[in-house]
TrEMBL record:
Keywords for the protein's UniProt record, in alphabetical order: GTP-binding, Nucleotide-binding, Nucleotidyltransferase, Transferase
Binding sites annotated in the UniProt record for phosphoenolpyruvate: 149, 165, 168
Any single Pfam family the record assigns to this protein: CofC
Name of the protein in its database record: Phosphoenolpyruvate guanylyltransferase
UniProt family annotation: Belongs to the CofC family.
The reaction(s) this protein catalyses: phosphoenolpyruvate + GTP + H(+) = enolpyruvoyl-2-diphospho-5'-guanosine + diphosphate
Keyword presence, Ion transport: no
PANTHER family recorded: 2-PHOSPHO-L-LACTATE GUANYLYLTRANSFERASE
Domain of life: Bacteria
Described function: Guanylyltransferase that catalyzes the activation of phosphoenolpyruvate (PEP) as enolpyruvoyl-2-diphospho-5'-guanosine, via the condensation of PEP with GTP. It is involved in the biosynthesis of coenzyme F420, a hydride carrier cofactor.
């Protein structure tokens, strides 16, 4: 797999952010009916806007993408992410693998896991989260539904133990992570799994990759405005 890197991971106090990206054949299944032939392009576009916003955040030293799929790998490497192979043992194993790479690249820096489905992500809102997270050994941001998690992070030297999947808010709380949910971070919490999530992200303002696919989607016969 091609490994490209435009950041030097050299800002030792900056965060290294690990972003997991599923293979396209398995991605965004809850959007399959609505997205029709645009599902894979939408998954790549959403990941691109997420990673571009993370790379534009001044608190971020670098982004590591963990994926087994060469298509998002190439698109995200072109944006400046370092891409590492997925161990193919599930989401948290993929994140731990990215976390191990982060610890090698920037041993003195904090490490975060960020979901790849945050197309409205704003660098300044991620900055608010990373500033708050720096005060705690382990912390997380709940998703907009307050069931899942969009971000999990650890201070330098703390074991990186993400517990994503399903009702992960409760698992992160149970694992001792501090919940970080200040006002003013809607873009960090707006993950996109369903058509109505996508409408909410569009209302917040999605990045250019997602906006281009959404334009095509809305002209297609599969898309229905969620009630
Ligand atoms: N590298 C990697 N990423 C994963 C894996 N499973 C899930 N992800 C990523 O984890 C995040 C949450 O994934 P899910 O909600 O399970 O999947 P999704 O593709 O977003 O949506 P659905 O197919 O509708 O469940 C997304 O960023 C996915 O790309 C995995 O096994 N490996
Ligand atoms: C994996 C998760 O998210 P979702 O399935 O909602 O994308 C999670 O919130 O832990």
């Amino acid at each position: 797999m091609r490994r490209t890197e435009r950041r030097d991971f050299g800002r030792e106090t900056g965060w290294t952010i690990v972003v997991p990206v599923k293979t396209l054949v398995a991605a965004k299944t809850r959007l399959a009916a609505a997205a029709g032939p645009h599902r894979a392009a939408l998954a790549v576009a959403i990941a691109c806007d997420t990673v571009a916003a993370a790379l534009a955040c001044p608190h971020v030293a670098g982004v590591i993408v963990v994926t087994a799929d060469p298509v998002p790998a190439e698109a995200l490497a072109a944006l400046g992410a370092r891409v590492v192979a997925d161990p193919n043992a599930g989401l948290n194993a993929a994140l731990r693998s990215g976390g191990a790479e982060a610890a090698l690249l920037a041993p003195a820096g904090p490490i975060g896991a960020l979901q790849a489905d945050l197309p409205a992500l704003r660098p300044e809102e991620l900055s608010v989260v990373l500033s708050c997270a720096a005060d705690f050994d382990q912390s997380f941001v709940p998703d907009a539904a307050e069931i899942g998690t969009t971000f999990y992070g650890v201070r330098p030297g703390v074991v990186f133990a993400p517990r994503f999947g399903g009702e992960s808010r409760a698992r992160h709380l149970g694992g001792g992570a501090k919940e970080v949910a200040p006002d003013g971070i809607p873009s960090v919490r707006r993950d996109v799994d369903t058509p109505s999530d996508l409408e909410e992200a569009v209302a917040l303002g999605v990045g250019p990759h997602t906006a281009a696919v959404v334009r095509k989607l809305k002209e297609s016969s599969t898309w229905r405005t969620p009630s």
